[in-house]
Automatic annotation (TrEMBL):
Residue ranges, compositional bias (Basic and acidic residues): 191-212
GO term, biological process aspect, one: negative regulation of canonical NF-kappaB signal transduction
Gene Ontology cellular component annotations, sorted alphabetically: nucleus
UniProt protein name: Uncharacterized protein
Keyword Nucleus: yes
Bias (Low complexity): 235-244
Main location: nucleus
Family matches, as PANTHER family: I-KAPPA-B-LIKE PROTEIN IKBL, NF-KAPPA-B INHIBITOR-LIKE PROTEIN 1
Alphabetically ordered keywords of this record: ANK repeat, Nucleus, Phosphoprotein, Repeat
Localization: Nucleus
Chain residue ranges for the region called Disordered: 190-212, 228-253
Amino acid sequence: MDPVPTMSPPATPFDIDHDATWKKQTRERITNNLNTLLQEAFMTHKAKMAKAIFAAPEIRHQFEEEYQQEIRHLKQLAEQEIQVEIKRGEEERKWSKETSWDDPNDITQALIEEQISILKHIKSSPSSPIAANSHEYQKPFFHEATTSTPLSYDTPSLPQSPITDSFSSPASGFYSSFSPSPVSILSVESPADKEARLRAEKREKQQEEYRKRAEAIMSRKRLEKQWSHWGETMSSASSTTSASEDSDHPATPDIAIPMSNEDIANLMTFHEQQWTWIASLPHLEWTDFPWPVLSFSTPMRKEELTLEAVVQYIFAPLKARHDRNVVKDRLKELIMKWHPDRFETKYLALIVNLREREKVREGAGTVARILNDLLGKWNDL
């Protein structure tokens, strides 16, 4: 078997500007992430080839083609990410250079000295209201500065920074034009970021809609169960005869109220959209997968993927439930999506967390075993 494919950072010509360092770091970071994904894909492919050691040469050749295609896809994604990151960094640095003159911290010492000279001129001018009312302003000149500690008139104290305190003094109108304008930070959003944000917003809106619908369904179920319990209580209290008759027969277990046809159709549509959606994500986790459970909420444990839950999920959208071919086609469709060879090759490498990856592997394996058992039993009928 070929060694693990790796990718080295692309060689770049000597760059005389100061951007070469951060560009190199960006390439190295993305390349390291790519090499990790390539290593995981190689281990998955190696395990699959070991299982298929006695398989036909055509099947092993197909596995090898799929593996090479996945490697090319990962490298292409890495190249695109490098280009996007470098372009974004160049735009941010270009914008920073263009707006650096507007930084409030760039006030020169000459401007400070000029403002102090203006203040002294105002104080010494005969027509100045400060000089005309010198008795009123025997206290420190910047007493009205925005400070929470009052200045003492008995103990001489140095005024605070004239740049900061002069804005609240009587002469502030004379030199208020020297106040630097605030810098507004603009966010630079690349097309890839915008597309990812819109996709996430759409999914979040969709999830919220289905969550509200699920809450309405659960509320209706609770209300109907309360009415049913109230009716049973009133019936048992009305007659001892009916109570004795009921004791001769076992209690009927609570029957779960099924989802409406509209809710089932919406759930199936949402799950089909999830299969399409996860194919475009760079990373995956347990909650991203459309687990075959008839519920708008994702099961949080693999133990919830029971035979009863999967059977209910299979038959819920079918109108002709007694048609053998319809049920068989439904089972085959789900088996193709959850088959371990296809599922693990396509999705497991995109799960970064190892514990999460093992959890998804076990959950998908449980679903595949249930579906295969059901198909075998259905063929035997």
